[in-house]
Design a protein that fits this description.
Layout (H helix, E strand, L loop, with lengths): L2 E10 L5 E9 L4 E6 L27 H7 L2
Length: about 70
């Protein structure tokens, strides 16, 4: 089984903060989806938070750079 596509997008969590969601498809037709919301604090075992920093979009919290890094 091989991954044939990886598509990421920016979504909003329940507090209207942007997060990354990723969909993966395989050559056998299997499909998976996962999201990575961030908590109030980021501990040593949590994912790195990659925010855009543009104050004009969600007060700098948008994740378009992270989405670009993931899309395959």
């Amino acid at each position: 089984m091989k991954i044939v596509s990886v598509v990421a997008r920016q979504l909003l969590d329940c507090r209207a903060r942007p997060l990354v969601e990723v969909e993966i498809a395989t050559d056998t037709g299997h499909f998976g989806r996962g999201a990575s919301p961030t908590g109030s604090s980021v501990g040593v075992h949590e994912a790195f938070v990659l925010r855009d920093g543009n104050p004009a979009e969600y007060n700098g919290l948008s994740v378009h750079r992270a989405v670009s890094a993931v899309t395959y």
